[in-house]
């Protein structure tokens, strides 16, 4: 398991992806799954930045490979509870004129990985995704 | 790294990773073009929902003038993201095959 904390800013994404890339290389994660995991990490990280507005602490990312499973866990500290994994779904069948940007990120995360869980303890919001490889 | 520019044939060329940190720059570029048409994604590795928002805003703008973006040569991961987002219903997506 490796973990690191990142400044709660979109500008931290480069560092975040540098961290995930080192993990993927170390653990031999295939290219296709790297893109999926990066997508999930970005969506959860940017949602924490956008919606946990009162928060000031850095956001933690922990990555772990166990057999054919990779787990990514993001933790936001000293925040109010907000389970963004239960946000309403965007209706993707709507015509263009009725579509509005936003709301797709976590919906896509749920579609791309095998498990998504949210828990809130000790004023920490934590979202964990698990992706099976291969 | 992310780059967006006009190619020699007038197509919009996107390269690298279009994430939330790059979305504002991509939006500004597309907004500066009166009628962008084809977006060549041959060298676009990655797109997040922030990038999808850029494409959707541009498509809605072009809807007013009867135009629209054609998204070309996206990789498998990006095509999956488009499909799961319903973008295959509101964009012309060409796999370049």
Question: How would you describe the overall organization of this protein?
Answer:
The complex is a heterodimer of chains A (134) and B (97). Chain A has 134 residues and is of the alpha+beta class. In chain A, 33% of the residues lie in helices and 28% in strands. The longest helix of chain A has 21 residues, at 31-51. Chain B has 97 residues and is an alpha/beta fold. Chain B has 4 helices and 5 strands, in the order ββαβαβααβ. Chain B has helices at 23-31, 49-63, 76-84, 87-90, and strands spanning 2-6, 12-18, 38-47, 70-72, 92-94. In chain B, strands 1-2-3-4-5 form a 5-stranded mixed sheet. Chain A binds chain B through residues 10-11, 13-14, 17, 32, 35-36, 38-39, 42-43, 46, 92-97, 99-102, 104-105, 107-108, 111-112, and chain B through 17, 19-21, 45-46, 48-50, 52-53, 56-57, 59-60, 63, 76-77, 80-81, 84-86, 89-90.
Rg of chain A (CA only): 15 Å
Based on Cα principal axes, name the global outline of chain A: globular
Quaternary structure: heterodimer
Helix-strand sequence of chain B? EEHEHEHHE
* Number of helical elements of chain A: 3
Helical content of chain A stands at 25-40%
- The portion of residues assigned to helices of chain B is 25-40%
In N-to-C order, the SSE pattern of chain A is EHHEEHEE
The mean pLDDT of chain B is 95
Quantity of strands of chain A, as a count: 5
**What is the structural class of chain A?**
alpha+beta
Widest β-sheet, arrangement of strands of chain B: 1-2-3-4-5
- Which strand order spans the largest sheet of chain A, edge to edge or round the barrel? 1-2-3-5-4
Which protein chains are joined by the largest interface, and how many residues does each one contribute?
A-B, 29 and 25 residues
Major beta-sheet overview of chain B:
5 strands, mixed
Number of DSSP strands of chain B? Answer: 5
Fraction of residues in β-strands of chain A: 25-35%
- The structure class of chain B reads alpha/beta
């Amino acid at each position: 398991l490796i973990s690191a904390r990142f400044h709660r800013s979109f500008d931290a994404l480069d560092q975040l992806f540098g961290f995930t890339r080192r993990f993927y290389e170390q653990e031999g994660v295939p290219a296709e799954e790297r893109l999926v995991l990066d997508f999930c990490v970005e969506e959860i990280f940017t949602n924490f930045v956008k919606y946990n507005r009162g928060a000031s602490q850095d956001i933690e990312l922990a990555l772990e490979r166990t057999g054919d499973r990779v787990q990514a866990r993001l933790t936001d500290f000293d925040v109010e509870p907000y389970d963004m994994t239960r946000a309403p779904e965007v209706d993707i069948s709507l015509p263009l004129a009725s579509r509005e940007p936003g709301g797709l990120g976590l919906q896509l995360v749920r579609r791309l990985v095998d498990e998504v869980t949210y828990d809130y303890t000790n004023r920490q919001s934590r979202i964990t995704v698990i992706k099976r490889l291969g | 790294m992310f780059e967006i520019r006009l190619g020699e044939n007038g197509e919009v060329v996107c390269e690298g990773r279009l994430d939330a940190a790059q979305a504002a720059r991509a939006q500004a570029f597309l907004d500066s073009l009166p009628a962008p048409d084809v977006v060549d994604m041959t060298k676009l590795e990655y797109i997040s929902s922030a990038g999808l928002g850029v494409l959707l805003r541009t498509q809605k703008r072009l809807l007013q003038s009867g135009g629209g973006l054609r998204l070309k040569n996206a990789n498998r991961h990006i095509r999956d993201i488009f499909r799961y987002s319903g973008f295959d219903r509101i964009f012309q997506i060409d796999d370049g095959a």
